[in-house]
Each structure stands twice: as C-alpha cells, then as structure tokens.
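User: Predict the structure for this protein chain, please.
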Amino acid sequence: MVAGSAGSAGSEGAEGVAGSAGAAGSEGAAGDRPPGARWLLRPATLADAEEIAFAELELFPDEAWNVFQLAEEIDHPWRRYVVALEEGELLGYAGIMLAGDAADLHTIGTRRPGVGIGRALLRWCEQAARAAGALSMLLEVREDNERARAFYTAAGYTEVGRRQGYYRIRGRRIDALVMRRELPDPPAP
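Assistant: Here is the predicted structure, written as structure tokens:
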C-alpha cells in the first residue's frame, strides 16, 4: 500500500512502502540512516506491529491490515518488513514477500510524504529482495492512484498486467495495475 499502501502496494504516491524479526539478516542493518535524513530505517519487529496498524488506519482506512495480520507478516520467514523512524516516531513502513526469483511488494506507506521516505523504503525492500535471490519485484497499484503510479514509474516499474476488480472499496471495484521491475545486482563488497 503506498499512500500517504501495496497489500496493497497501491496507494502511496510520490513519497513514502520489512524485515522480518529474526529474519532480516543483512538486508539493512539496524539504524540505517539515508544521507542527510534525520530519520532512520531498521527492520521491523513484532513490537512495531501495533504502531504500523495505527498508521495503516490513518493511511488506508478502507483497506488497512489489522495488528494480527501485520504481526503474522513481520514474523513470517519469507517476509521482510522495514520501518522509518525519527526519535522513536513511526514515519513509514514497507513489506515484501519473497517468492523465489520474484518478490512482491505487499505494503508501503508514509506519514510524511515528500521527504524521500517512500523512495528509501522502496530501495530497502528492493535490496532485501535482491539479497534473498529475487531478480525482480512485482506490485499491484490502484488504477485510480495517479500519484502512486507516477512514483513507481519513476522508480523504474512498468505495467505488465491488470487485475480487474482487485480492490473493493465502499462498494466500488477498482482495478489493480500489476507493475514489475528487474532488480539490479547487489553492489560488490
């Protein structure tokens, strides 16, 4: 969910979309801080599930995941979730599912759009996917979410399909556009 989500990877937009507790490995060391940012990225833990659930309700009231779903995702061995924090405040989060040579962006959202959090979360997810052996990343985005579509297009994703009626919001059925990007090789050590 990109919003303002992918489990919607589909809602965020131009800015700001998991490292599994105990499964994050080397995909983003705890406390990674993008250059010039006051906030940092770290793999999500089960302790983050409640705050992520509150953010889901704020950002995606019609399609929010609950705390139990999020805890299951964060704890799953084939998922990676990440959070963006500033002085303990949750600014954003993202999560992927690892599925062989392709990864799926499940969710992405930021509470502070326009400062690079979304881009950093997406990059973290792409790096985690690549480190786990994925060659590409897939996501679904709401057809009517121009901001999110522009965000993903700018990040190198291209439309590869459509899922009719994928989103069901307030009695409406909205198509999801399936987007894909080949992932670059990880940097040499």
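The first strand starts at residue 40 and ends at 43.
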